[in-house]
TrEMBL record:
It comes from the Bacteria. Residues 36-159 form the Gfo/Idh/MocA-like oxidoreductase N-terminal domain. The keyword Cell wall biogenesis/degradation does not apply. GO terms for molecular function: nucleotide binding; oxidoreductase activity. Pfam families: GFO_IDH_MocA (PF01408), GFO_IDH_MocA_C3 (PF22725). InterPro entries: Gfo/Idh/MocA-like_OxRdtase_N, Gfo/Idh/MocA_domain, GFO_IDH_MocA-like_dom, Glc-Fru_OxRdtase_bac, NAD(P)-bd_dom_sf, TAT_signal. PANTHER family: OXIDOREDUCTASES, TRANS-1,2-DIHYDROBENZENE-1,2-DIOL DEHYDROGENASE. The keyword Glycoprotein does not apply. PROSITE patterns: TAT. Keywords: Oxidoreductase, Signal. This is Gfo/Idh/MocA family oxidoreductase. Residues 170-288 form the GFO/IDH/MocA-like oxidoreductase domain.
Length: 367
């Protein structure tokens, strides 16, 4: 016969259970290894997307936030269960060095801020994940790599496509020779940008225009799809709206890359056309075509062998799971996501802007 006390205990136990979703119990049971404790700096559009995606991570957990807006910090504490002692602003975040409960800071602020923020985080002894583009130019990028090396912390760049299953399948096929010798890559990255007052159209904060923001996907994609480092670049800029796209903010850039094997790449980066999110890689024996190729997905595509059928994943969830493995367990990704990888893209960006200015072919030395 159940006593009143045991009855109350049963009620309490079942009430407690009902507060914990079964899925989280199941996921807690599945993974018992180390967890990467992450603070996000810059609580805007992409920072929020990463925070939401981390809710379903097993190996990474959002535990901290850095913002210049106190109300945002309060909101994030409530929304993501972040303790107040793990919240900082842009003046105080160097104190993170005394916080034993944060392993890494994920920087999702405007491009121009990445350089100084990464260097400050490294000096505080924390690992860093920095959004793309890693910096405004290769010199800044190299300084960030050097600072992280000196501080003994890891620096990773938020290249989410390096973990995306359809992308990895095309890379696997290319590596096993399914396309034969690679001859050509084409990348088209563009959308029509809205609000003319946003930081993406401010040269000081963005460091450029569409090339810094989305053209970088075609640069990076050309490298991992062809599987070589380019040795020269040519580029041309066109501008139809000089009021919206001021001096130093590119509206549309086309560029071409040459690779040691003789393969070539052709790409278009724009803030003035929609429906442009397409990769095409062509070899002597076959091809892969992806559209959409770098959006949040599902990524779709086909090769000469048929449709790409890898499952859709939330890119940022997969990225954070894999980055936890890289930081905590020294795992090696299929395509590098370290600071050196980011600097290579910046060297190409520097060369593209130089080619636009001079109209000449610019040699590249990435190795
Ligand atoms: P956003 O404008 O939505 O967010 C930027 C955040 O930085 C805001 O919260 C803003 O308040 C804060 N901030 C701090 N200092 C600032 C300053 N001086 N000026 C303006 N804002 C300041 O931008 P976003 O779309 O989240 O982009 C942030 C970074 O993430 C960029 O580097 C961008 O390239 C990158 N990003 C990457 C992806 C991806 O798929 N990997 C997607 C979107 C953005």
């Amino acid at each position: 016969m159940s006593t009143r006390r045991s009855f109350l205990q049963q009620i309490a136990a079942s009430a407690a259970l009902s507060l914990v979703p079964l899925s989280s119990l199941a996921s807690e049971r599945k993974y018992e290894g180390p967890v990467l404790r992450v603070a996000i700096m810059g609580l805007g559009g992409y920072g929020t997307r990463v925070a939401d995606a981390m809710k379903t991570c097993q190996k990474a957990k959002l535990v901290g936030a850095i913002s210049g807006t106190p109300e945002k910090l309060t909101r994030w504490q409530e929304k993501y269960g972040i303790p107040a002692e793990n919240c900082y602003n842009y003046q105080t975040f160097d104190q993170i060095k005394n916080n034993k409960n944060i392993d890494v800071v994920y920087i999702t602020t405007p491009n121009a801020l990445h350089h100084d923020q990464v260097i400050r985080v490294a000096a505080a002894g924390k690992h860093v994940i920095c959004e793309k583009p890693m910096a405004l130019n290769a010199k800044e990028g190299q300084e960030m790599v050097d600072a992280c090396k000196k501080a003994g912390v890891k620096l990773l760049v938020g290249y989410r496509m390096h973990f995306e299953p359809q992308t990895l399948e095309v890379i696997r096929l290319r590596k096993e020779g399914a396309f034969g010798k690679i001859l050509f890559f084409q990348g088209q990255c563009g959308f029509t940008i809205g609000d003319p007052t946003q930081w993406r159209l401010n040269r000081e904060l963005a460091g450029g225009g569409s090339l810094m923001d989305i053209g970088i996907y075609a640069i990076n994609g050309a490298r991992y799809m062809v599987g070589e480092e380019p040795i020269w670049v040519t580029a041309q800029e066109t501008k139809t709206d000089p009021v919206k796209f001021k001096e130093g903010v590119d509206e549309t850039i086309q560029f071409q890359l040459g690779f040691p094997s003789g393969a070539v790449a052709s790409a278009l980066s724009t803030y003035k056309m929609n429906n442009l999110d397409r990769f095409f890689v062509n070899g002597e024996k076959g091809f892969a075509e992806m559209q959409p190729s770098t959006g949040y997905g599902p990524i779709k595509g086909r090769t000469h062998l048929g449709e790409l059928k890898a499952p859709h994943v939330t890119h940022q969830t997969r990225q954070m799971e894999e980055m936890a493995g890289i930081i905590l367990e020294g795992k090696e990704p299929v395509v590098a996501v370290n600071g050196e990888e980011g600097v290579k893209d910046l060297k190409i960006i520097d060369a593209i802007y130089k080619a636009v200015k001079t109209g000449k072919k610019v040699p590249l030395n990435l190795i």
